[in-house]
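Progress against Task 2.4 (sequence-to-structure conversion) is shown through the following example record, which the project officer requested during the mid-term review.
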Amino acid sequence: MTDSNFLKGRGIQFLFLLGLFLPSSTALALDIPWSLEGGYSYSVLNKGDYKAARGGWVSAEAHFPYLSLEAGYQDLGRFDLKNVSKTHIDVDGYTAGLLKRFRLNNRLSVDARLGVYAWKADATFLDENVGEDRGDSLWLGAAGHLDLTQRFGLFLSWQWFYDISKANINTLSVGLNLNF
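Structure tokens generated for the chain above:
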């Protein structure tokens, strides 16, 4: 297994907390709109004979006039190997990126996202940890948002994570966003 050249150990956890803090505190100080999002995801690994996984994520976004900054935590879930019990891969990590939101009307918007995903994958065979892999990968996605009120909304998003332990992962997520 390989170690990431991007960030190791607790450094990524520090950057995640900093990533949540900076967009929100900068947005508050500069009176810039910001939001929190969180949701449930369904992930598919395109390598091997693995079942789809369920996970979740949370992120903070600072919305500047032309682009937004985003930082978050993404749990892609546990991918169980089909026909082999107690054998799986768990994948989670932290995202940092940019997004561009396009307002369709006063309640609907879509966005495009691009960033980096610093991840960790733990492999388990017959309930015994057999290894860990870490890395950083390209992450991109698109989402649709429906504002229910000025503060609350719903979203549906698709995300693609490139080359996580030599596999690509697609996710479909639904969730809530809270606007400030």
